[in-house]
């Protein structure tokens, strides 16, 4: 991932969210990944903060874009396994 200067290994897709802005349409894919560095060693060149969150993490503050919807999804999926 270029913005965080890490190498990721995708494991499996979790979901896709669609977004439209005027005449432009986007698909945002959430994919479970393994990554190559510890959070403490990641260089933030495009973001102010970074945090590892999972389905049990309560987050204070606002999410950017579709991130809040994605976190709600993984929380719901974890609490209602098939």
Question: Can you tell me about this structure?
Answer:
- By secondary structure, the chain is α+β, with helices and mostly antiparallel strands.
- A two-stranded antiparallel ribbon has the order 1-2.
- It has one domain.
- The protein has 1 helix and 2 strands.
- 16% of the residues lie in helices and 32% in strands.
- Strand 1 and strand 2 form a beta hairpin.
Number of DSSP strand runs: 2
Give the neighbour order of strands across the main sheet: 1-2
Instruction: Let me know the average pLDDT.
Output: 77
Structural class: alpha+beta
Given the structure, what is the number of helices? 1
**Whole-angstrom Rg:** 14 Å
Helix/strand order, N-terminal first: EEH
The quaternary organization reads as single chain
Instruction: State the helicity in percent bands.
Output: 10-25%
User: Any low-confidence stretches, pLDDT <50, length ≥5?
Assistant: none
Number of domains: 1
Sheet of most strands: 2 strands, antiparallel
Shape: globular
Beta fraction: 25-35%
Kindly, what is the distance between the CA atoms of the first and last residues, rounded to a whole number of angstroms? 31 Å
Concise structural overview:
16% of the residues lie in helices and 32% in strands. It has one helix at residues 67-79; strands at 8-21, 24-35.
What attributes characterize this protein structure?
82 residues, alpha+beta, 2 strands
């Amino acid at each position: 991932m270029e913005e965080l200067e890490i190498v990721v290994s995708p494991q499996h897709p979790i979901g896709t969210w669609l977004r439209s802005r005027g005449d432009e349409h986007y698909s945002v894919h959430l994919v479970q990944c393994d990554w190559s560095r510890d959070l403490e060693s990641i260089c933030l060149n495009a973001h102010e903060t970074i945090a590892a969150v999972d389905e049990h993490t309560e987050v204070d503050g606002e999410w950017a874009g579709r991130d809040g919807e994605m976190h709600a999804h993984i929380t719901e999926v974890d609490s209602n396994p098939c």
